[in-house]
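TASK: fixed-backbone design
INPUT:
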């Protein structure tokens, strides 16, 4: 009798474990899909920020180049003002 009770108890525990695993599997898959969507959104945002940063840096580089060109034009094409060249 005791063996039958133990066998029934083991079967119930195994069935409960299988049911919990089966029900939980769908929840874990849903969580995985949510995290995948979140990761994709973050990747797009980071990529967009990188592109924007590249454009800003390019614009600053262009502004700096124009300023340097303007200064060189004022100073007769040299890298230093005329007063500094004689030193």
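OUTPUT:
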């Amino acid at each position: 009798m005791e063996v039958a009770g133990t066998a029934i108890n083991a079967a119930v525990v195994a069935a409960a474990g299988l049911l919990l695993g089966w029900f939980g599997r769908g929840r874990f898959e849903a969580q995985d899909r949510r995290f995948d969507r979140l990761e994709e959104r973050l990747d797009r945002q980071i990529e967009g920020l990188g592109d924007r940063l590249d454009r800003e840096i390019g614009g600053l580089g262009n502004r700096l180049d124009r300023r340097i060109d303007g200064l060189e034009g004022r100073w007769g094409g040299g890298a230093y003002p005329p007063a500094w060249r004689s030193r």
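COMMENT: Residues 2-74 form the longest helix (73 residues).
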